[in-house]
């Protein structure tokens, strides 16, 4: 992470799509890991990308790159989680990059599609990296190598979910335990809210 994040609106030219895996790799290589855990995840993700030239595509069955968004409200008090229909857990918006190596753009796109909130903005560089096994009925288990970004919601934002979720909810950090949020979600929320407060 850097002390000088840049906040980009959806129409910023820097968020244009790219098919070049090297662009995603550079984002991972430039990530300033805040601790040993994140440094180890960073090393694993770089090794995976180097070993899998098709890592941008879900057809890479071992695993693939994903991008997700910690959506923070205008008051910088709450984050938006959705109850994922497939995995039956409260998670942040996110998903497959589908060939787009612009990971920040993919995270912002997923956040917009899954929350229905207009005028979201994404902060770069990413705030967190995570590798987890994805398991869902009817699909073989595989790895999601997730790059996570802070996404800022405008004042008065109202969400509306899509077919991928059963419910959406603004929650405080204290409420994450009530939703059985996993360690990675809590870690991301702590870091994202801290950064959002600095940007406010």
CATH class: Alpha Beta
Question: Element order, helices and strands?
Answer: EHHEEEEHEEEH
Give average pLDDT, whole number. Answer: 94
Main β-sheet, in a few words?
8 strands, mixed
- Helix/strand/pairing category: alpha+beta
Task: Calculate Rg over CA atoms.
Answer: 16 Å
CATH arch. level architecture: Alpha-Beta Complex
Question: What would the principal axes of the Cα set say about the shape?
Answer: globular
CATH topology: Nucleoside Triphosphate Pyrophosphohydrolase
Number of domains: 1
The separation of the N and C termini measures 17 Å
Characterization of the model:
The chain is an alpha+beta fold. The protein has one domain: Nucleoside Triphosphate Pyrophosphohydrolase, CATH 3.90.79.10. It has four helices and eight strands; from the N terminus they run βααββββαβββα. Helix 1 (21-30) runs antiparallel to helix 2 (36-51). The longest helix has 17 residues, at 183-199. The model has no long low-confidence stretch (mean pLDDT 94).
List key phrases describing it:
200 residues, 31% strand, 8 strands, single chain, Nucleoside Triphosphate Pyrophosphohydrolase, 4 helices, alpha+beta
State the gist of this model:
The protein has 200 residues and is of the alpha+beta class. It has four helices and eight strands, in the order E-H-H-E-E-E-E-H-E-E-E-H.
What's the arrangement of secondary structure elements?
Blueprint: E1 6-9, H1 21-30, H2 36-51, E2 63-72, E3 79-84, E4 90-91, E5 94-96, H3 103-115, E6 121-136, E7 139-152, E8 165-171, H4 183-199
Parallel strand pairs: 2-7
Antiparallel strand pairs: 1-6, 2-3, 2-5, 3-4, 3-8, 6-7
Helix pairs in contact: 1-2
């Amino acid at each position: 992470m850097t002390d000088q994040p840049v906040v980009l609106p959806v129409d910023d030219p820097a968020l244009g799509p790219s098919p070049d895996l090297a662009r995603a790799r550079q984002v991972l290589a430039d990530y300033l890991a805040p601790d040993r855990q994140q440094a180890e995840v960073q090393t694993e993700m770089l090794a995976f990308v180097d070993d899998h030239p098709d890592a941008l595509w879900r057809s890479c069955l071992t695993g693939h790159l994903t991008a997700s968004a910690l959506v923070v409200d205008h008051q910088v008090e709450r984050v938006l989680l959705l109850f994922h229909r497939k995995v039956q857990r409260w998670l942040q918006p996110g998903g497959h990059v589908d060939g787009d190596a612009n990971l920040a753009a993919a995270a912002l796109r997923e956040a917009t599609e899954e929350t229905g909130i207009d005028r979201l903005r994404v902060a770069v560089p990413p705030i967190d990296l995570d590798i987890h096994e994805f398991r869902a009925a009817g699909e073989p288990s595989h790895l999601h190598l997730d790059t996570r970004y802070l996404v800022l919601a405008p004042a008065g934002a109202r969400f509306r979910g899509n077919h991928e979720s059963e419910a959406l909810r603004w929650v405080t950090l204290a409420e994450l335990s009530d939703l059985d949020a996993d360690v990675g979600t809590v870690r991301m929320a702590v870091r994202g809210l801290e950064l959002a407060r600095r940007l406010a």
